[in-house]
Amino acid sequence: MERVAFESLLVAENFIFINRLVVQVGGKKKGGKSQDISEILSIWENDKTRVENAYHTLKITREQRAKNFFAFVAQIPAKWKIIIDFLAQTPHIKEEVQDAIDFIDDLFPIFKK
């Protein structure tokens, strides 16, 4: 990969990604995003393969975490329904519990489906 192309990839990433990458390739978190990109590129000049592999590994890890997060979030409505069904069968629900249920229902309208 050419330096300009790799630099463009780095610039397109958010600062948290860049912070993680600079540390992963053995650099020191010195300052802002542009300083970190400069450090990554200086390390890249000496070991392109290691830096590019670290970049791609971090990208894959981030994508996997996002998939795991969305899979977790997708389960929330079904789990919420279990709680609501159980509470619907409970004869006496404390007012605080009902207030909490109403609050969560108002906060997350998707649960009402």
Can you give a write-up of this model?
The protein has 113 residues and is mainly α. It contains 5 helices and no strands. It has helices spanning 3-12, 15-24, 33-46, 48-88, 95-107. The chain is elongated. The N and C termini lie far apart (49 Å). 11% of the residues are buried.
Summarize the topology.
Layout: H1 3-12, H2 15-24, H3 33-46, H4 48-88, H5 95-107
Helix pairs in contact: 1-3, 2-3, 2-4, 3-4
Radius of gyration: 23 Å
The largest sheet, given as strand count, sense and whether it forms a barrel, is: none
Q: Indicate the percent of residues in helices.
A: over 70%
Cα-to-Cα separation, first versus last residue:
49 Å
Note the beta-strand portion: under 5%
Query: What sequence of helices (H) and strands (E) makes up the elements?
Result: HHHHH
Mean pLDDT: 88
Structural class: mainly alpha
The overall strand count is 0
Tally of helical segments: 5
* Low-confidence parts: none
Question: So what's the overall shape?
Answer: elongated
Compact overview of the structure:
This protein is an all-alpha fold and 113 residues long. Helices cover 78% and strands 0% of the residues.
Attribute tags:
5 helices; 78% helix; 113 residues; mainly alpha; elongated; 0% strand
